[in-house]
Amino acid sequence: xxxxxxxxxxxxxxxxxxxxxxxxxxxxxxxxxxxxxxxxxxxxxxxxxxxxxxxxxxxxxxxxxxxxxxxxxxxxxxxxxxxxxxxxxxxxxxxxxxxxxxxxxxxxxxxxxxxxxxxxxxxxxxxxxxxxxxxxxxxxxxxxxxxxxxxxxxxxxxxxxxxxxxxxxxxxxxxxxxxxxxxxxxxxxxxxxxxxxxxxxxxxxxxxxxxxxxxxxxxxxxxxxxxxxxxxxxxxxxxxxxxxxxxxxxxxxxxxxxxxxxxxxxxxxxxxxxxxxxxxxxxxxxxxxxxxxxxxxxxxxxxxxxxxxxxxxxxxxxxxxxxxxxxxxxxxxxxxxxxxxxxxxxxxxxxxxxxxxxxxxxxxxxxxxxxxxxxxxxxxxxxxxxxxxxxxxxxxxxxxxxxxxxxxxxxxxxxxxxxxxxxxxxxxxxxxxxxxxxxxxxxxxxxx
Length: 448
Ligand code: S3P
Fold this sequence. Notes:
With about 450 residues, the protein is of the alpha/beta class. The chain folds into two domains: about 10-25 and about 240-445, UDP-n-acetylglucosamine1-carboxyvinyl-transferase, Chain; about 30-230, UDP-n-acetylglucosamine1-carboxyvinyl-transferase, Chain. Helices cover about 30% and strands about 30% of the residues. The strands form six sheets. A four-stranded mixed sheet has the order 22-23-1-24. A four-stranded mixed sheet has the order 2-15-17-16. Helix 11 links the parallel strand 22 and strand 23. The longest helix is centred in the middle third of the chain and has 13 residues, at about 245-255. The structure holds shikimate-3-phosphate. Shikimate-3-phosphate binds near residues 29, 176 and 179.
């Protein structure tokens, strides 16, 4: 929903000893895909552990608007009665994807090869974000897009009546673009090929295979070559959504920087295309242990234990790791502020076109709290203050970005003075229970 309410100012106080079990919600990326592929299969897909954040609720509503029956049975327990590949009905109203780039881009792909027309909009953040990266490849299938200047929402897509399969090399590292092309390829006859130079999260590929599509992935010198055979009949699935590693990052990083902490996050997804943050933290000297490694619903899963790590050191994060931790740079910069020395993050231009310009948002807020940050178009460097060394005390602007809000609230837990955010409302898009969950561990967050 784009109707974001009045700003919710929040303040997070310094605390000691975060302790306990943090059961973070379901994975956002997997939740969107489960609803969309459920809607494109024939029969009933059952989902457990679905993230009930606003982003995913907006995708659920969109799937209803395209003709699927989407029912909530209980917390995280949903079913989708799909309409089959090519079976989407033309929506009778504007599709409002709220804050969600993943929602709008994947749904545009899923409808682009069906002979229907749909208009998409979002909130003030989403309506600033680039959509040409998706509509360019969708045009190759035969779809037409008309939006605002700069390829921005609101935007209308006229789906291709006679789609042709495409071969597309994704020019930016983006799982959303890759997934939009694959979902469009579902209703094109013949083989659609997507080539990505850098591996991005592969939930769409895994889930398409699980739903019975013919899909192959080959590692070549040019990158990952993904080949999908169009017009399959997708078989409904039972999907258990693992807990979101990108949400787990917040209690985990809080435990690393708040003295005396020991936190266990059970059952988090550890897909290698998502786990770059944890490797980076270990290189910095974080006390992290992975317990009970297992596979659930086609995704690797583990229990992750994080303990206070007073001697962490800044590192140079390998740029080729960026895609596997792209959503985690804001919270990494908070850990970096509490480490010794410089943490150098390069090859991260994509951070500038997320829910906010995440380099600018974090650099501004960290500086206001007494931390030195340098930044350029596709890099930034945080000079750490060491454990307990961040002065804090400032109010940070969150720019309708959930991860910026959560990052600064975590900063406040380990700073010398409380840290505030101007608006914590967007946290509900991905991690609606963030506040109560952190408070149960010992955090002190109040309405400011
Ligand atoms: C996502 C892909 C990433 C990520 C986003 C979720 C997805 O975006 O930042 O939070 O579920 O495919 P890009 O594809 O723009 O890198």
